[in-house]
Amino acid sequence: MQFFAVGQRAEGFIALGQEATGVIAIGQMATGVVAIGQLARGVFTVGMLSFGVVSVGMLSVGLVYSVAMLGAGGRCGPGMLILPLVPVPRGPFELPARTQLEAIRRGVTGWIDVLLQTGPRGLPQVVHDGMPIDAALPARLLRAATIQVSIGKGSARALAEVAPVPGGGLRIERLMMIPPDRAGCMIAALQLLGLTIAAYAYWQFVLVDLLDFAYRLVRAVVTGA
User: Fold this and answer.
1) What value does the CA radius of gyration of the chain take, rounded to a whole number of Å?
2) CB of 2 closer than 8 Å to CB of 16
3) At 15, is the secondary structure helix, strand, or coil?
4) d(CA 177, CA 114)
5) Where are the alpha helices (DSSP H) in 15-138?
6) How far apart are alpha carbons 65 and 77 in whole angstroms?
7) Where are the domains of the chain?
8) What is the pLDDT along the chain (225 residues), one digit of tens a residue?
9) Which of 2, 51, 169, 211 is packed most tightly, with the most Cβ within 10 A?
10) Options 1.10.3470, 3.40.50, 3.30.1300, 2.40.50; CATH of 101-179
11) What are the Cα distances from residue 208, in Å, to 16, 37, 42, 72, 84?
């Protein structure tokens, strides 16, 4: 096996050709530890179509990291549309302190846990502790609440900043939607499924050829061929 190989089907430690296979491979169709080409397969890959552990390309899949116009990766760098394949636990965040509803009625603005449900006229109504409350939803929040109730198939959990209205009644100033836990679990499951499919495809279409080349390279070094 040559250290530096050039040709239609080049194979060597450094390979340059239309179909290049090597530790460093450059070609139209390149396979290697470092692969650069229109179609690049390997560990570190750069190409129009690239598939590797770390991959950069227009259409790219990287098991650990990917930079692409379109692609997927364990972790995602810059790009137009790259799908992350490894779920990332959501970091801790602080929710506003809750205020008793009676304290709000006495003149204090505060946050309470609410459930937005479809009301008798088809519009969202605000429910707190199992009972509807006389809290008006401004027009700027009504549409958003309607969409969330529709997504939640009739109800949606939220935090509401409620202010008393002079002369009686309550008004919703802000809403903070609380996504259902099952949504995060479903997204994580789909990400792991995508990672499993990508890992299987990497084994079948990349790693088998790389290991076969590595065996031939080691045998050539040992035998001096």
Assistant:
1) 29
2) no
3) strand
4) 10
5) 101-105
6) 7
7) 2-86+188-223, 101-179
8) 788 999 899 999 999 999 999 999 999 999 999 999 999 999 999 999 999 999 999 999 999 999 999 999 999 888 888 899 988 766 556 778 899 999 998 889 999 999 888 877 777 888 898 888 888 888 888 888 888 888 777 888 889 999 998 877 888 999 888 766 566 678 888 899 999 999 999 999 999 999 999 989 888 888 876
9) 51
10) 2.40.50
11) 21, 19, 10, 21, 25
141: which 2 tokens? 């929040």
| C-alpha to C-alpha distances, 29 to 8, 16, 82, 151, 214, nearest whole angstrom | 10, 10, 23, 46, 18
Considering Cα of 30, then 34, then 40, then 42, what sign does the dihedral take?
positive
124-137: buried (b, 16+ CB within 10 Å) or exposed (e) per residue? bbbbbeeeebebeb
* Pair of tokens at residue 184: 């995060």
How many other CB atoms are there within 10 angstroms of residue 196's CB atom?
A: 11
129: nearest Cα among 152, 150, 160, 108: 160
First to last CA, the chain: 6
Question: Cα–chain-centroid distance for residue 164?
Answer: 41
Cα 115 from Cα 216, distance rounded (Å): 65
Q: Which of 86, 141, 16, 201 minimizes the C-alpha distance to 4?
A: 16
